[in-house]
Inverse folding.
């Protein structure tokens, strides 16, 4: 194997695929990136058997072949070599030589035959949409997945596809986020639960443009094509919570508030809540004013924000982090807060954008 390629192209491709390298594994072979030189291209693959990322770059292939190289080292090394051409050469003695300007490195390789086979999946079941819309869909829900593994199914995001509409749902027992988007195309109705970790890596590969991302599904595997990169992930198996039963249909109180003013006040209140166990912020909604308060042993904060209230006044408390994380992903100027009782969930939606809904459980206020 002998290849000459652009240093920046290689560094970017290595950085993409290295996100799938196994962090902790009893199998050292998974610490490697597989390189395959063929037909004027260099293909790079990394996997931990749950998540696989592949990228392909153009290259001058003088001799075809394949090899393994330690992924962490290769990522750090190529990151420092972006201003010219790089030569990669595998000798007969399985020594991988990297040449860049006046720099040279010789790397011992492992047996490429021991690397797990990455199989292509059937492409008959799929959906597609603009990259920026898929990115927004993921970002609006993925932060609400469960952080612990008590219920592994809640560490994934539910995708439901029907009538060229995709619905994404994530919940952790304290909050729920739901987002809906239109699809460019979909081969069939389907439902799947995608690991949050995989989606977090997918987001890093998506851009803000209108280029298409296509997602293929075969049994318990999902493949996502993003330009030259491909991401493959195993789906989570099991039944997701029936989230539709959780969502209230009617409300006693509806409040419209400027999102930035609300968010800024919550950020200031959080300066104190971070010193408490419950991370609690209290909202007192009366007439045209919402009073926001928080306290710690050494200080207290009280703020007032103008609101438009329809229905009954209410006093309620929440984990301030859950509120601010929901507001950060809303792109509209105003949001609606919908309440029933101080012990009942609150629903947050944006004004003018019906694709997003966030539900949050309150914290019981003593006294």
């Amino acid at each position: 194997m002998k290849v000459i390629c652009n240093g920046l192209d290689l560094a970017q491709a290595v950085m993409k695929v290295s996100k799938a390298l196994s962090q902790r594994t009893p199998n050292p072979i998974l610490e490697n990136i597989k390189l395959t030189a063929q037909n004027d291209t260099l293909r790079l693959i990394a996997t931990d058997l749950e998540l696989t990322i592949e990228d392909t770059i153009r290259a001058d292939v003088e001799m075809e072949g394949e090899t393994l190289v330690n992924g962490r080292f290769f990522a750090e090394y190529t990151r420092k070599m972006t201003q010219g051409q790089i030569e990669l050469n595998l000798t007969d003695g399985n020594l991988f030589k990297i040449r860049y300007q006046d720099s040279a490195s010789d790397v011992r390789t492992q047996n490429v035959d021991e690397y797990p086979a990455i199989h292509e999946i059937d492409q008959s079941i799929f959906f597609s949409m603009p990259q920026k819309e898929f990115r927004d869909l993921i970002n609006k829900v993925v932060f609400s997945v469960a952080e612990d593994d008590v219920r592994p199914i809640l560490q994934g995001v539910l995708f439901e596809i029907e009538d060229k509409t995709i619905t994404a749902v994530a919940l952790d027992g304290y909050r729920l986020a739901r987002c809906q988007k239109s699809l460019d195309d979909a081969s069939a109705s389907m439902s799947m639960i995608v690991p949050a970790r995989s989606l977090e890596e997918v987001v890093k590969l998506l851009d803000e443009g209108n280029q298409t991302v296509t997602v293929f599904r075969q049994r318990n595997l999902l493949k996502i094509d993003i330009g030259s990169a491909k991401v493959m992930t195993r789906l989570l198996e099991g039944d997701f919570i029936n989230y539709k039963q959780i969502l209230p249909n009617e409300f006693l109180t509806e409040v419209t508030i400027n999102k930035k003013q609300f968010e800024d006040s919550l950020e200031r209140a959080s300066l104190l809540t971070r010193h408490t166990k419950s991370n609690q912020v209290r909202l007192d909604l009366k007439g045209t004013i919402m009073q926001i308060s928080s306290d710690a042993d050494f200080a207290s904060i009280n703020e007032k924000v103008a609101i438009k209230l329809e229905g009954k006044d209410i006093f309620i408390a929440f984990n301030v982090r859950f509120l601010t994380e929901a507001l950060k992903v809303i792109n509209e100027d105003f949001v609606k807060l919908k309440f029933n009782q101080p012990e009942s969930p609150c629903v947050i939606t944006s004004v003018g954008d019906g694709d997003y809904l966030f539900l949050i459980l309150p914290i019981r206020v003593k006294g």
User: Anything to note?
Assistant: The radius of gyration is 25 Å. The longest strand covers residues 299-311. The chain has three domains: 2-114, 126-244, 248-360. The domain at 2-114 is CATH 3.10.150.10 (DNA Polymerase III; Chain A, domain 2).
